[in-house]
Amino acid sequence: MMDSPRTAVSNPPIQPMDSNLGERDLIRRSATASLPKPERQLTPVAKLIDVSKCIGCKACQSACIEWNDTHPAVGENVGVYTNPHDLSENMFTLMRFTEWVNPETDNLEWLIRKDGCMHCSDPGCLKACPAPGAIVQYSNGIVDFVHENCIGCGYCVKGCPFNIPRISKTDRRAYKCTLCSDRVAVGQGPACAKACPTQAIVFGTKEDMKKHADERIADLKSRGYANAGLYDPPGVGGTHVMYVLHHNDKPHIYADLPDQPKISAVVQSWKGVTKYAGLAVMGLAAAGSILHGILGKPNRVTDEDEEGAEKLTSNPSATDPGADGHRPEERV
Amino acid sequence: MKAERVQPGDAIHPGNPITVNRYGPAARANHWITAVSLILLALSGLALFHPSLFFLTGLFGGGQNTRAWHPYIGVVLFVSFFIFFAQLWRANLPTRTDVQWLSHAKDIIGGHDEKLPEVGKYNAGQKFIFWAMAGLILLLIVTGVIIWDQYFGAATAVQTKRYAVLIHSICAVLIICVFILHVYAGIWTRGTIRAMTRGTVTGGWAYRHHRKWLRDLAGRGRQTPAE
Questions:
Q1: B220 lies in which domain range?
Q2: A164-186 pLDDT, tens per residue?
Q3: Strand pairing partners for A113?
Q4: Which of A71, A82, A199, A313 has the fewest CB atoms found within 10 Å of its own CB?
Q5: Burial (CB count <10 Å: 0-12, 13-18, 19+), residue A174
Q6: Do A292 and B188 touch (CB under 8 A)?
């Protein structure tokens, strides 16, 4: 069989099968120095979200809730279509609705973007994670959280350039879209893509998805969207969830999608130079103390000191104040 | 009596050798709380600082417990240290002698106290430790609260938290270095640790390292102060 499904549309195989995605396919593992190189390279997969085809039905959200068996609380209507109001440990994907007036045409455009994990090739969450094996990346590009290893520190939240992970208030572990790694492992596409009635969400190899995007972009351009393009941001090494945007020159209009996402320089220096220089400095301080202790003599109180104390305490005014003639202590 | 040299409770007791009260029971108990919290914070913090030290989470019952306990211990350290701070800050104000004392770097490191100018209750090195600890603990508690997601997760933006966690880790490295220096100086300068355990030092120790403090105490009479 093929190593990864090529589409989410076809019906899955009905015979039982073993998972085709496991430890042996890991190319990155959080807080792990030496990870054996996988023996095989899986075909990189991707989900392509064409915002121009989205009708805002939220079938993807429902499918996500159903497949992942999450239970978002019943929300309240505050006058916008976005529901729930934010991603949560129970809502891995969210349709964000934006009413945008195009300054060129003065038309109101209703922008709908399906938010969720982008599955970066260079994942900031994984870089920031201090718990070994709590975040992993498979050779097909899926970035997954391994909840039993998660310590709930929230470092992934700081590492993520897209503000995606959420920490559960009940079990204190981080949650996000898995790209349905458990479905992909057995030859099925992600639940959201399977459920999408207009195929605004499609799934396949990253190569196929880029080709499909090209066709869609050509179509959009022929309809007057001169700036239509593919959102596959190079700042994070490309992503395994991509968008076709009709206004690819300004991604931020789609509910603050970052124009040029990359791992924050603050996070890079925290997880880079600080980590290594910090260990070195602490090691030097400890080694310096030990060396001084071995090579130098301890600073001992002598018998003369005790005698001096005797003399001084019996007649304080008799002794010369200041061994080397310094004046009594003065405030600066 | 100059406040930076002598503190309430400091007193000379005759005997062989003479002993001098340096810290009362409450101050010592508080210092032990500070010391234990700082060690626990260093161990739990280092576990999350570098993957090679993650095994230290085992001391706290796993990663989840380490993450959960670390901030509470931080609050204990903060409170305990600043009680200490309120008692000692006056005695740690810089003086002109500190500059002279520091200019004898070779004699300080070599342990030639007889060549150093007389100092009061604290020398410039001890004052440095005191103010470094105070500044770093302040920075650590502020940045620590910002990244304490359990209670303050919604209070700040992600970018603020990124800066907070970076500053927190740099300050942690520095305070561990200050801690190493503090502990080593206490061990290397023989006769110091008993100030932390029994609260007293010998007259010879005071004469050698803090003669001005001893002189002030002696000038005031041998008895426990009346005030």
A1: 1-22+96-122+199-227
A2: 999 999 999 999 999 999 999 99
A3: A96
A4: A71
A5: buried
A6: yes
